[in-house]
Amino acid sequence: MISKYVDSVATFSGDIDHLIWVITAIVGFWFLLAEAVFFYLIIRYAARDGVRAQYVAGEDPKEKRWVAVPHYLTLAFDVWIIFSAISVWQEVKQTMPQADETVRVIAQQWAWTFIHPGADGQLDTADDIRLVDELHVEKGKTIHFELQSRDVLHSFSVPVFRLKQDVIPGRTIRGWFKTTQAGAYDIQCTEICGIGHAIMPARIIIESPEDHAAWLLSQTPATAALTTPTTQTGGMP
Amino acid sequence: MHRMKSLNTSAFAGLALVLALSGCRPDGAKKTLPGVELYAACASCHGTDGFGQALVAAPSIAGLPAWYVEAQLVKFRSGIRGAHPDDLEGLRMRPMSRQMMDEGEVKAVAAYVASLTPMKQAPTLTGADAAAGAGSYATCQACHGVDGKGNEALKAPPIAGQYDWYLVSQLGKFRKGIRGANPKDVTGGQMRPMSMTLADDQAVKNVVAHINTLAK
After folding, report:
1. What pTM did the predictor assign?
2. Do A233 and B172 make contact, defined as CB atoms within 8 angstroms?
3. Which of B54, B83, B94 sits opposite A236 (nearest CB)?
4. Domain B31-115, what architecture?
5. Residue of A nearest to B53 (CA)
6. What is the CATH number that goes with domain B130-214?
7. Could you check whether B31-115 and B130-214 share the same CATH topology?
8. pLDDT one-digit tens code per residue, A176-202
9. ipTM score
């Protein structure tokens, strides 16, 4: 249902959608039931001439049940939600399947720089492919990402993966994803990072093996010399 | 009947509110905002007076000629400048330049920047030899002029009065190919080999120290 509106293209995005549904269904059920009882009681026991209002303390077990039973049921449903959430958290955040490729994602005010390992599959070598605004990955490969920030807090969000991970200056934060569908999708920053926060979009290009190989070839070796890491420059001498 | 009328009024009011909140203009007309209004996007870094600030590496832009500001905004908007992965400040400027929605807005904000009163910025360089830099400046003056006031015919901007740290930073970027290396950057491509005539970082500082001495 959610994927009807936002594509679901990572192996774990369906599980996150499922979790959202579990929570929506449980919370929605109790919300509607509670509202129904609430309005029924308001209408059924509305003020009437000649009927005196009385204070109900809930000490009578028959009355107390109206609170106690939903209370225990809610707790039981909470346990269901927590277990569902923990299993998804475990899958997405606590496990790191073997990587086919590792990319580095560098956030700054207000742009994303993506460092691809290039033909040799290794980061920090001369054939690294550094691109602003575009991350290229091969469909079906397990990609590890290393998040770094040059300045302030950012958040790496790929809506089609249902993935969101804070980027914290001074740290390298690792995560992973495995794509299931080719296409070009949005990457956005989801942590307010300054005046240009809203205008730092980027794209993830998920390519078939053939297209990815062709892209890789187009970036090497002719441009390899240009993409050799150069010293970071600052505004002050 | 009366109730129906009040319902229609509410429906219209609701529709008007939704349209207003969604930013739609009923006539669908595109409106170019005046330069002073557009400049609000620039002011957070360059300041309301256009003098910039070292803290965020924003240069002084007050009084820069409109043709230069416009040319740079066009370059930033199209990724010809400020799109190199190592151009920390350029990457910050690039999305801000896209706050200008079209050519008309670029022209409007450039005209406003040009209308601001320029001010000579105080020197901050240490360990630089302005006298030694005067010799190297001979290369620069062919385009930027003896007085550093620039030359529109050669698309060379004024550099006298600019922050020295900014000039050092930009010369460094030209030298490393972080600025001016895009094949579409014609004037940047001209500036790159000129920056290469400076032998090292000390030579860069010296020539900037000389530019510091040029009156604005």
Report:
1. 0.82
2. yes
3. B54
4. Orthogonal Bundle (1.10)
5. A235
6. 1.10.760.10
7. yes
8. 999 999 999 999 999 999 999 999 999
9. 0.77
